[in-house]
Task: inverse folding
């Protein structure tokens, strides 16, 4: 019984890992250092993006990009993003499980 549970859990983890890898938009590579690959930042002063509402994440990224929200660290990374890239990033992080 224990063995079966372990196998099930492992399979589940593998499926999750591959799904996340294939879904991550290309631009997420520039965010990984601070926010983690799946949006679960490990450093407290970098906010967790995983599981936040897509509409909220989209607005924050546009606000950083367009100068309505200012942060010396974050703004440069939002500057180069198009509306489509922002939508893809927001959807990706919103779909990740918060840990
Ligand atoms: C060098 C570190 C760094 C990188 C790289 C970085 N960020 Fe951030 N990010 C931050 C910090 C710091 C904040 C918090 C800013 C503040 O306090 O207002 C933040 C805030 C955010 C927020 C707002 C979160 C909230 O809860 O309001 C979003 C969304 C976000 N980042 C997305 C991204 C995306 C998408 C990328 C990649 C394109 C990225 N960040 C790259 C450091 C970084």
Result:
């Amino acid at each position: 019984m224990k063995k079966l549970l372990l196998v099930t859990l492992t399979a589940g983890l593998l499926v999750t890992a591959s799904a996340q890898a294939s879904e991550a938009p290309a631009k997420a590579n520039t965010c990984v250092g601070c926010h983690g690959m799946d949006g679960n930042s490990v450093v407290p002063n970098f906010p967790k993006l995983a599981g936040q509402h897509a509409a909220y994440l989209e607005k924050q990224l546009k606000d950083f990009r367009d100068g309505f929200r200012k942060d010396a660290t974050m703004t440069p990374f939002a500057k180069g993003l198009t509306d489509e890239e922002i939508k893809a990033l927001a959807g990706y992080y919103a779909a990740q499980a918060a840990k």
Q: What stands out?
A: The domain at 25-94 is CATH 1.10.760.10 (Cytochrome Bc1 Complex; Chain D, domain 2). The radius of gyration is 16 Å. The helical segments are 2-23, 32-35, 54-66, 75-79, 83-94. Residues 2-23 form the longest helix (22 residues).
